[in-house]
Amino acid sequence: MPEVRCVILAAGQGTRMKSNLPKAMHPLAGRPMVDYVVRAATAATGERPLVVVGYGRELVEAALAGRADFVVQKEQLGTGHAAAQAAEKLTGFRGTVVVLPCDTPLISPRTLADFIATHERAGAAVTVLTAALEDPSGYGRVIRSADGRVTAVVEDRDATPEQRAIREINTAIYCFDSQTLFAALPRLRRDNAQQEYYLPDVVELTLADGRPVHAYQAGDPDEVSGVNNRRQQAQAEAVVRRRTLDRLMDEGVTVVDPETTFIDDTVKVGPDVTVLPFTFISGESEVGPECRLGPAADIRDSRLGRECVVQYSVVEKSAVADRVTIGPFAHLRADNEVASDVRVGNYAEIKNSRVGPGTKISHHSYIGDADIGGEVNIGAGVVVVNFDGLRKHRTEIGEGAFIGCNNNLVAPMKVGPGAYTAAGSTLTKDVPADALAVSRERQQVHLAGWARRRREKANKEEP
Asked: Pick the catalytic residue: 26, 81, 363, 364?
C-alpha cells in the first residue's frame, strides 16, 4: 500500500466568522473545529497529519500538541500557497497526499478512508471528493463527460447557467499523487481578483497535462459541509450534537428530548443515565451510571459518580461521588470534592470545599474554602465568611457537627467533631469537640405593650 500523508489547511483567520479567533479554533460541541478534522485524518490513515498554521498559530499548535506536525504559512496567499508550504516539509515523500481544509469538521474517518482507497485503486493523479447538494450555490461544480470522467472543476462565479444547474460540487478535499502535486504547485499563478494561489488550479493543470482526474462522491452531504460563517457553525454544531446524542442513546443513555438536550462530544456518560430537557453537559465531564440529570442541569468539566441527581442546578469543575443529590437551584462552583450521600439543596452555593459523606447542606447557604467532615448538618442560612477583604481563609468543621440556622462562621476557624452551634450565632473563635457555641444577645422584652400603644396612636391620627 502506498504511504499516505494528510495535510490540513488551518492558517487562515476566516474573515466571514467576524472574529479575532482563528477559524480553526472556533468550537463545535466542546472541541475546536480543526480537532475534528485531525481526529478523522488520524483515524483514516493511522498517521499524524501535517497542519499548516498561520494566523493565531500558537492557539492551534497548543490545541493539537502531540497529535499533529506543523508547518507555518507566514503570508496567507491562498490554499495553493498553503499546500506549497506543506510540500516543502514533505520533500522526498512518495505516496498519496490528502489535503483537507480545517473547516470541514463533519468528515468521518470512514468516508475519508474510502475516499483514499478509491483514489489509490483508480491510479488517478488527482481525486476530488464531491457531494450532491440540493442547493449547490456558491460551490465549485464538477463537470463530467458522458462516460463519467471529470473534465473540469468550475467555480460558481465562472460557471455558465447550464453548469450552475449541476448539483455535484467540489468539497475542496483532494487526494493527490505526491509527484503530481509537487510538480504542479510551482506552476500556480495568482492572476485573479484575490491575488492568491488556488489549490483547485492543480486540477486544471493536471487535466491539461492529460493526467487522470477522478471523483468520489460522499454519501452524506453533511460530512463535507464547510463552516465559513456563524450560521454554518450553528448548523454544524447541531449535526455534531445529534451524532453525540445518538451515540449515547445507543450506549444505553435515556435522552428524554434530544431537541432540548446539549451534550458536548467530549463528555462521557454511563449506562442507565436519564437526561431531562434543557440540560447542558460540557467540557471534560464524566457521568456515572444511573444518574438523573435535569431538568435544567448545567454540568461543566465535572465528574459525577453513580446514582446522582442534579436538577435546576450548576456544577462546575467539581468531583462528586455516588448518590449525591444537588438542587433544585444549587451552585457548585469550581474545585469542590463532594463525598457520597451528600445533599446539597435549595439555593446552596459551594466553592473550593471538601464535603464529607452523608453531610446535608440543604437551604440558602454559602460554603466557601471549607473542609467539612461526614454526617454534618448545615442549617438554613449558614454563611462561611471566608474573605477578609484581602485574603481567603479556610474553615474546618468536624464530623457529626451541627451548624445551626443563620450562623456566620468567620474564617479562619475550626468547629470540632460533634459540636453544636446555636441558631443566629456569629462565631469568630474555634469551637471544641462536642461543645455548644452560642454567640448572640439574650432576648429581652422591652417596653411591654409598646406595639399595642403604637397601633392605637396611629389609628387616632388617621383622618
From this structure: 363
Question: Rounded to whole angstroms, how far apart are CA atoms 317 and 167?
Answer: 47
354-355 and 336-338 strand pairing: parallel
Reported as a pLDDT band with limits 50, 70 and 90, residue 463 is: low
Residue pair 268/251 in contact (Cβ under 8 Å)? The answer is no
C-alpha cell at 101: 481544509
φ, ψ dihedrals at 394, nearest 5°: -100, 155
pTM exceeds cut of 0.85? yes
Q: How do residues 215-265 score in pLDDT, each as one tens digit?
A: 999 999 989 988 999 999 999 999 999 999 999 999 999 999 999 999 999
Q: Which residues is 108 bridged to in the sheet?
A: none
Cα atoms in the 13 Å half-sphere on the side-chain side of 247: 13
Contact of 131 with 224, CB cutoff 8 Å: yes
β strands within 57-133, DSSP E: 69-72, 95-101, 126-132
Return d(Cα 80, Cα 65) in angstroms, integer.
25
DSSP 126-146: EEEEEEE-S--TTSPEEEE-T
pLDDT-derived band of residue 195, with 50, 70 and 90 as boundaries?
confident
Compute, in degrees rounded to 10, the torsion defined by CA atoms 386, 388, 393, 398. Answer: -50
Domains and CATH numbers, the chain: 3-224 (3.90.550.10), 240-437 (2.160.10.10)
Q: Helices 201-208 & 79-89, crossing angle to 10 degrees?
A: 80
- Which residues are paired to 249 by β-bridges? none
Q: How buried is residue 114: exposed, middle or buried, by Cβ count under 10 Å (0-12/13-18/19+)?
A: middle
- Residue 363 appears among annotated catalytic residues: yes
Q: Which of 288, 293, 300 is nearest to 335 (CA)?
A: 300
Helical packing angle, 230-250 and 33-45, nearest 10°: 50
For residue 346 the three cell numbers come to 435549595
Nearest of 232, 155, 187 to residue 83 by alpha carbon: 187
